[in-house]
Automatic annotation (TrEMBL):
It catalyses: Hg + NADP(+) + H(+) = Hg(2+) + NADPH. PANTHER family: MERCURIC REDUCTASE, PYRIDINE NUCLEOTIDE-DISULFIDE OXIDOREDUCTASE RCLA-RELATED. Keywords: Disulfide bond, FAD, Flavoprotein, Mercuric resistance, Mercury, Metal-binding, NADP, Oxidoreductase, Redox-active center. This is Mercuric reductase. One of its GO terms (molecular function) is mercury (II) reductase (NADP+) activity. Homodimer. Coiled coil: none annotated. NCBIfam families: MerA (TIGR02053).
Length: 559
């Protein structure tokens, strides 16, 4: 195979939907290896197989898509890449890692420790990936800032009357940017700065075959094994007019230094909810449009009821069972046409910004996966087993691009596991049975293992204990009894198989419960253990006791 690049100036594109339309049509044409089109610059770059197509064939193909037309073509001087067997071999590595986030860095660290020559190829987000640049770090920093503002104006104690707060929104965002930059340098770039066997390259990687990639369509690299760790990005719904009115995602929202007048957030998953609470507490009017019946629908009603009540009490407008069907601009306002729960159509006016938080999609497009017949799930994730192996023996996947839980800490585990399994006969597996997770709303929502719905679906014999925080001395002392602790046990073994917590700082409890699940600790063990009095953790003991006793009838510290 001999590939060639042609750059074309394309007339008629007005939005990202146009560029996506051209890319989709061209990529489906036999002989087109890859298409990259930018509606803002009006340019398209196309890699094609010269054995199947000519320059003019590519131009004609673009001209045949919709109302678009090629007005000029510009070929790169160094346009051709050859088959790997014709290459001189100077760019051969033991391992190629495609991506630059947590999974990729974990893989690189593991590879360096066992002396592998490694190439890391990254494009899109800067090295460090979603978590440090646009995800965990900035969002939790803003959430903490917002909590500080909230507690300066709200008190759980009648005898304490807060006098208010002055919010310098621009300074908050600048401080967030400084934190992101510092951690990106210290926790990623500095960590690998003295690696002798690692080469880091900024560019777009595409597969030629299962051991070969070319980067930015011109330089070719080969490796014994390859790990795909390209992460995920916001899934933008296909709604009429959305691309034309302008919208934000967490990537662009977190960098706005001018406080938004208001926000309409599309989606009530954990990303949308965390954004809503943070920005509302920082003085931004917030509305959430959710097409299902309630926020965070992945959790049971009792959890979402507590959270929804808190959000509404803070002035956040939540519109469940509303589906946006059209967006249009009217001067500096955005009109959102929504289908209401009763089937009627209404118009919602947003004077600030639209924020899209409708889930994520894996970054698997434009990688040339068609050239290696890599298997994907129905949602586009790379299909891996518990060893991070794909259907191709020397290709592995890790992190959000794979069909695994989408957390930065699971990505890190998966990256190192993939390297171990690619180069060692002793294979390791990743077990998510006791995986802990946290949603950083207020109150926080945390979980590990199964909830009652999942236990029933699995056909397990189970029993549920649910302890309202009004029965936990720590919560009473703090005058904050929002939420509960819920434990799920296997009735045949008495072992803990799941837990859910909704409480202030509830995330600090979940690791203990995760360890209990992992190591087969029984509910009796939890109930019989010592817990410091007037800690939230004591609620675990009380919840365990609740399986057999009414704890409201026990004295303090009683068993």
């Amino acid at each position: 195979m001999s590939n060639k690049i042609i750059n074309l100036n394309i007339n008629g594109m007005t939005c990202s939907g146009c560029s996506s339309h051209i890319e989709k049509d061209l990529n489906s044409k036999d002989g087109i290896v890859n298409s990259t089109v930018n509606h803002e610059t009006g340019k398209g770059e196309f890699v094609y197989d010269t054995n199947k197509l000519s320059n003019q064939d590519v131009i004609n193909a673009v001209n045949n898509v919709g109302n678009y037309s090629v007005i000029e073509d510009i070929e790169k001087e160094n346009c051709c890449v050859t088959n790997a067997k014709d290459y001189d071999g100077k760019n051969k590595f033991d391992l190629i890692v495609i991506g630059g986030g947590s999974a990729a860095f974990s893989a690189a660290i593991k590879a360096e420790s066992i002396g592998l020559t490694t190439l890391m190829v990254n494009d899109g987000l800067d090295f460090g990936g979603t978590c440090v640049n646009v995800g965990c770090v900035p969002s939790k920093n803003l959430i903490r800032a917002a909590e500080t503002a909230y507690h300066a104006t709200h008190s759980n104690f009648k005898g304490i009357k807060p006098k208010g707060v002055e919010i310098d929104f621009t300074q908050i965002i600048k401080d967030k940017k400084t934190l992101v930059s510092t951690l990106q340098q210290h926790k990623y770039m500095d960590v690998v700065s003295d690696f002798k066997n690692l080469t880091m390259l900024k560019g777009w990687a595409e597969f030629v075959d299962n051991k070969t990639i070319f980067v930015d369509g011109k330089n070719i690299y080969t490796a014994t094994n390859i790990i795909i760790a390209t992460g995920a990005t916001t899934n933008i719904p296909n709604i009429e007019g959305l691309n034309k009115v302008g919208y934000l995602t967490n990537v662009s929202l977190f960098d706005l230094e001018e406080k938004p007048k208001s926000l309409t957030i599309m989606g009530a998953g954990y990303i949308g909810l965390e954004i809503a609470m943070a920005y509302n507490r920082l003085g931004v009017k917030v509305r959430i449009i959710e097409f299902t019946d309630r926020p965070l629908r992945s959790q049971t009603n009792d959890i979402t009821d507590v959270l929804e009540a808190q959000m509404k009490s803070e002035g956040i407008e939540i519109l469940p069972n509303f589906r946006a069907i059209k967006f249009e601009k009217d001067s500096d306002k955005t009109i959102i046409h929504c289908k209401c729960p009763d089937g009627s159509i209404t118009q919602i006016i947003e004077e600030g910004h639209i924020v899209v938080a409708t889930g994520t999609k894996p970054n698997t497009s434009k990688l040339g996966l068609i050239n290696i017949d890599l298997k994907l799930t129905d949602k586009g994730h790379i299909l891996v087993n518990e060893k991070m192996e794909t259907n191709i023996s020397n290709i592995y996947a890790a992190g959000d691009v794979a069909n695994t839980p989408p957390f930065v800490y699971t990505a890190a585990k998966e990256g190192s596991t993939a390297v171990n399994n690619a180069f060692s006969l002793a294979k390791n597996s990743v077990d998510y049975t006791s995986l802990p997770w946290v949603v950083f709303t207020d109150p926080q929502i945390a979980g590990a293992g199964m909830d009652e719905v999942e236990a029933e679906k699995a056909g397990l014999p189970f029993e549920v204990s649910k302890l309202d925080l009004v029965l936990v001395p720590r919560a009473l002392a703090a005058q904050d009894t929002r939420g509960f602790i819920k434990l799920i046990r296997n009735t045949e073994t008495d072992k803990l198989i799941g837990a859910r917590v909704i409480a202030t700082e509830g995330g600090e409890l979940i690791q203990q419960l995760s360890m209990a699940i992992k190591f087969g600790i029984t509910v009796k063990d939890l109930a019989d253990s010592f817990y410091p009095y007037l800690t939230l953790g004591e609620g675990i003991k009380l919840a365990a006791i609740t399986f057999g006793k009414d704890v409201s009838k026990l004295s303090c510290c009683a068993s």
